[in-house]
Design goal:
The structure is a single chain. This protein has about 475 residues and is α+β, with helices and mostly antiparallel strands. It has a domain of about 50 residues: Serine Threonine Protein Phosphatase 5, Tetratricopeptide repeat, CATH 1.25.40.500. Helices cover about 15% and strands about 30% of the residues. The chain has ten helices and 25 strands. Its main location: nucleus.
Length: about 475
């Protein structure tokens, strides 16, 4: 047992127990009256008792927060200020299309754009009071191609479907067949013109193979400008591939064990990776060594995600906690406990205020980042939640699971009932509404395909994917 890492964690770090002052006094008196000094010594040696004043919590409140490998987070862990607001968008003039001009009103402004602004999504031109300073961390300069991209995005946005309980998105599901036998016979890899055949739209073949890893590949992420692809593997490396030449540009070595996930920053240049060595690392594409090492999880880091403002990284771990890390200094600024199994999916709301997490316990938990509180629990899935995504304006949360379903949840309703008064914030007690069924807008089953990946296109079409599993 001496060499066992989990045992070592239990022996060296204290298990955190959050308890009201009254309950603590009762426990202490009880053990002292019964002369249970042995138990009292164990309590003092191995438990960190985080005492709060005021009413004790209800069983439901306690049950919602327990389950992590190291107990609950100390309240102090979630007190530091987090800049969860969005960075100001650069000023880019959108040239009008011919079709736009027809829809002009008297002042000569396009009509369509006005109602698109929305409190939950849309990046406004005003500085968000909760946003980090623009230069808090150095972000790459916008190239002309990026500006063109942004103009394209803005035009797409005007055609976006406004979602809500009465207007649910369409879902396009891709099922991968024979994924377990690695069936690559579809393409003649030896052919001389293999690159052209893949790139030319008319004659494009259906896949491109990037060789380089010496073990299974667990994570992949496209750069925002779509010029690069990152992949993370069991071989302990993260590789950066060019999507122009389909060759590997760099192999980043830093993890000594499998790397379960990797993701590009929404601004490109930076990326994050997490793996079996319990550590997440922040990298920049032009550095061989990591820029930051995020250490603190007590088990594998299964998933990693950037906050929309790129100043923070969230990690989900097999220690059943979610942590939020500050990119500027590598500090852990939030620890969220409540899942009863390893965490496998994370996603931030488009406005940067909330985080949704999914785990093997089949629950989707919602967190208020600013207050450091759990504000919702969505029950319905019966197996691991592998994928979570908010719609582009944050109205709907989609979850995909190993139970072969995609579920859609009313995110606006889930967050608007949140009462974060001073008492709640001080004690970390939140009364979770018991109505997650009221928030469930739809359940969509596949025949026999676990839902491994979800994505909302810019027009709010849901793309979902998974590999068919013969029962």
């Amino acid at each position: 047992m001496k060499g066992n890492e989990t045992m070592l964690d239990f022996r060296t770090s204290k298990f955190v127990l959050r308890i009201s002052r009254d309950s603590y006094q009762l426990l202490k008196r009880h053990l002292q009256e019964k002369q249970n000094n042995q138990i009292w010594n164990i309590v003092q040696e191995h438990l960190y008792i985080d005492i709060f004043d005021g009413m004790p919590r209800s069983k439901q409140q306690i049950d919602a927060m327990v389950g992590s490998l190291a107990g609950e987070a100390k309240r102090e862990a979630n007190k530091s200020k987090v800049f969860f607001g969005l960075l100001k968008e650069p000023e880019i003039e959108v040239p009008l299309d011919d079709e736009d001009e027809e829809g002009e009103n008297e002042e000569g402004k396009p009509k369509k754009k006005k109602p698109k602004k929305d409190s939950i999504g849309s990046k406004s031109k005003k500085q968000d009071p909760n946003a980090p300073p623009q230069n808090r961390i150095p972000l790459p300069e916008l190239k002309d191609s990026d500006k063109l991209d942004k103009i394209m995005n803005m035009k797409e946005t005007t055609k976006r479907v406004r979602l809500g309980p009465d207007c649910l998105p369409s879902i396009c599901f891709y099922t991968f067949l024979n994924a377990y036998q690695v069936d690559l016979s579809l393409i003649d890899k030896e052919s001389d013109d293999v690159l052209e055949r893949i790139m030319d739209e008319k004659t494009a073949s259906e896949l491109k193979i990037l060789y380089g890893h010496s073990g299974p590949v667990y994570g992949a992420s496209f750069s925002p400008d779509r010029n690069y692809l990152l992949s993370s593997s069991e071989d302990g490396t993260v590789r950066l591939w060019s999507l122009q030449t389909f060759t590997c540009l760099v192999g980043y070595k830093g993890h000594n064990y499998p790397v379960w996930d990797t993701q590009f920053s929404p601004y490109g240049y930076y990326f994050v990776s997490g793996g079996h060595d319990r550590v997440a690392r922040l990298w920049a594409t032009d550095h061989y060594q990591p820029l930051r090492i995020f250490a603190g999880h007590l088990a594998d880091v299964n998933c990693t995600r950037f906050h929309p403002n790129s100043n923070y990284v969230a990690t989900g771990s097999a220690d059943r906690t979610v942590r939020l890390w500050d990119v500027l200094n590598g500090n852990c600024v939030r620890i969220f406990t409540g899942h009863k199994g390893p965490i496998h999916s994370l996603t931030f709301s488009p406005n940067g205020r909330f985080l949704a997490t999914g785990a093997t316990d089949g629950r989707v938990l919602l967190w208020d980042i600013g207050h450091g509180l759990m504000v919702g629990e969505l029950k319905g899935h019966t197996d691991t939640v592998c994928s979570l995504r908010f719609s582009r304006d944050g109205e709907i949360l989609a979850s995909g699971s190993m139970d072969n379903t995609v579920r859609l949840w009313d995110a606006v309703k889930a967050f608007e009932d949140v009462e974060t008064d001073d008492f709640t914030t001080a004690t970390g007690h939140i009364n979770l509404p018991e109505n997650s069924q009221e928030l469930l807008l739809g359940t969509y089953m596949t025949k026999s395909t676990p839902v491994v990946h979800l994505h909302f296109t810019r027009r709010n079409l849901v793309l979902a994917a998974g590999a068919y599993s013969p029962q």
